[in-house]
Design goal:
Layout: E1 9-11, E2 16-18, E3 21-22, H1 23-27, H2 33-42, H3 48-61, H4 68-79, H5 84-93, H6 102-114, H7 125-141, H8 160-170, H9 176-192, H10 200-210, H11 218-239, H12 243-252, H13 259-266
Antiparallel strand pairs: 1-2, 2-3
Helix pairs in contact: 3-8, 3-10, 3-11, 4-5, 4-11, 4-12, 5-11, 6-9, 6-10, 6-11, 7-9, 8-10, 9-10
């Protein structure tokens, strides 16, 4: 018979094994969901500091009000109240380059800069600022956007950013990704010509990378966090719905515009 190897989980008639441990006898009631999520992704248990940062980031990304992801979930639930999973999926599908996906984009951008540097333990503010200036300049020259900069609401500073950095410092997990991210915050006006806040999704990516999470999976953790927020929105939608109002407002105010006229307006 063919074999399909996995280090995640298996089961028999009487047992369930997860990560090489007996689920019922060794894990239930013994570890938190955050620790399990970290363990599943990395195949190693987090240190207490890594776990603290990881769970703080999950909390920071759980909800941000009536974002497009939350509205999509609520409208889908209004359209198909028999499909809770469809409503959650609709919200998660909106996690991209403008919302939630910034966590992964920032982590990857920072990692591409940090990885070739090697040992940065002796770097101070001056060295990190120089690295940030070079990376920002290269990104600008390529016509690309620096992820993690700017926020549509928190123009004067994202309140999550300093708290996550402080938690990483207290937990002994602050590393090169957060150091570079802070340097970007200090020097970017010299390159982009204006001052922008370091946003919460970006600092989340930097913190998760320093906490040892794979940078190619960071969007998954943002979606994991937002799933909890979407469940909250759907629970509220059941009791105090806004879906009918949003749908009605858009539908009643829709105005037919001939295609030629629409094109000229876009131009």
């Amino acid at each position: 018979m063919p074999e399909y190897p996995t280090a995640i989980g298996t089961s028999t008639t009487d047992t369930i094994s997860l990560l090489g441990h007996d689920l019922a006898g060794e894990l239930l009631g013994q570890i938190s969901f955050g620790e399990l999520a970290y363990w599943l992704a990395t195949k190693r248990r987090p240190t207490p500091g890594q776990l603290r940062v990881f769970e703080a980031v999950l909390v920071s990304l759980a909800d941000h009000g009536f974002t497009p992801t939350a509205i999509a979930a609520r409208l889908t639930y209004y359209s198909a109240p028999d499909s809770l999973q469809g409503a959650i999926a609709a919200g998660l599908l909106g996690g991209g380059s403008r919302f939630l996906g910034v966590t992964e984009d920032t982590g990857q951008w920072l990692h591409r800069v940090v990885e070739p540097l090697g040992d940065t333990s002796g770097y101070g503010t001056e060295e990190w600022d120089a690295v940030a200036l070079e990376a920002l300049g290269a990104t600008k020259a390529a016509g690309a956007k620096v992820p993690g900069l700017g926020h549509p609401v928190h123009k004067n500073g994202d309140p999550r950013t300093p708290v996550i950095i402080r938690i990483a410092e207290e937990a002994g997990v602050k590393g090169p990704h957060l150091e570079l991210f802070e340097a970007v915050g200090r020097v970017h006006p010299q390159v982009v010509g204006r001052t922008l806040p370091l946003n919460g999704a970006g600092v989340a990516g930097a913190a998760l990378a320093d906490a040892g999470l794979p940078v190619d999976l960071l969007r998954g953790f943002a979606l994991l966090a937002r799933t909890a927020g979407l469940i909250g929105h759907l629970a509220e939608e059941r009791e105090n719905p806004i879906g009918p109002t949003v749908y009605g407002e858009v539908d009643r105010n829709a105005v037919y515009t001939p295609p030629a006229e629409a094109s000229s307006k876009e131009d």
